[in-house]
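Wed. Picked up where I left off yesterday with Major facilitator superfamily (MFS) profile domain-containing protein. The coffee machine is broken again, so keeping this brief.
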Amino acid sequence: MAAKGQVDLLLKLDQAKTQLYHFKAVIISGMGFFTDAYDLFCISLVTKLLGRIYYQVEGSPKPGILPPNVAAAVNGVALCGTLAGQLFFGWLGDKLGRKHVFGITLLLMMISSIGSGLSFGSSPKTVMATLCFFRFWLGFGIGGDYPLSATIMAEYSNKKTRGAFIAAVFAMQGFGILAGGIVAMAVSATFGAVYKAPAYSVDPIGSTGPQADYVWRIILMLGALPAALTYYWRMKMPETPRYTALVAKNAEKASRDMSKVMGIEMQAQEEVGEEKVINKSNSFGLLSEEFLRRHGLHLLGTASTWFLVDIAYYSQNLFQKDIFSAVGWLPRANTMNAMEELFKIAKAQFLIALCGTVPGYWFTVFLIDYIGRFTIQLIGFFFMTVFMFVLAIPYHHWTLKENNIGFVVIYGLTFFFANFGPNSTTFIVPAEIFPARFRSTCHGISAAAGKAGAIIGAFGFLYAAQNQDKSKVDPGYPAGIGMKNSLMVLGMVNVLGFLLTFLVPEPKGRSLEEISGENEEVDQAHPTGVEIV
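Structure written out below (tokens, as returned):
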């Protein structure tokens, strides 16, 4: 709704010049994504080390690895927590307000990061169980940050640069990935220099050493640092003016908050009579018949495209170990000690992120308000489809040593077009196209659909991509459909994502109230006495 007493307020927000507060809001809002990416990056390194420390088989020619069910639990429990957090905090953000819930998510991340590093137990099983417990709650906190950060940034931004600012919040993931790589390399290099150890093939027990148990704990606990540094500023942020005016219905307070943080001076007007009329027109509930008529296809579009892109995006991590070994970045595990292996995997993942993943985020930031969300999403799905099929159809060709570099380039490009494409836009659009009173909830539903896709991508394809020949599968896994067929399926997933993008409207250059139809609600309620934006 945009009654006359709120029109000036919303107009001022939409026309406000880009200023320091917008950039400050990006950093404060983006810390959840920084922590999310840092944790996801580090846990793949940590699982290698946990295998060596806790699951070493005496006399084995190779270092220990986590059993498939333990690896799935350690990696997957945070994704499950994220899914639950997206739904719960998305709903809570609409009920209590963005600000009241925003600090809780960061506090949860800080406590859970430290708890993950302090995982205790007298046996491998109890250590893994404790680690999984804290990782679930870490994911729960991270999940809450998805709908809240996107909604807060959308509601503070002007309509001209809104896309870039929401994209910049999401792009903080890129810095989280790079920070994860730097921390992992620094900690492993320091321990490796201080505590010299032979290669596994020379001394299986001595190659890991008792100090290795501190390394993974330090890496995980350092994830709490960026969250702790921004906690104070997050608590100082006022409620978003749009929530205060449109949901809490206090235009006067919204005006005061805007004046305080953005230097926008204006006089609020009380419009009690008109608000009563608008409340009546604006009373349809979430998932009611009226909601489904207005926004049902939009919610289907945002949830389904996010679900599909995360299947493809998270399954891409399957190929990393093959790629790193193929291009000689990663020697065989038994030729290295634990710290060397950790350093080399961190370095390889860091380079892939630096050259493929991170640039994609920033291409989106700089271009989204020029070419639009819809176009970027179509471009991303199109090229992800092309590259998946290019990898899949001549798959044997790419396994030959002389073609390894080409394989790495195409692999890097799929990451680039995921981020300069649907991985970014599926985060941005749900924060723009739904009414203020449902915005956080609908973003949470869309994001939770994405995380369901991530769980399928990360674990379904871990099993699916196993060799069809049972004698060639990884230890502990059944035979699958093979890598080539898995890539073909992922190509089809991207085709479906491309088609479902047509359900989602283009929000570029329009006010949030215009896109969500809140202006239209006012028109229907009071056709003559209400001014609309």
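Quick read: Residues 20-54 form the longest helix (35 residues).
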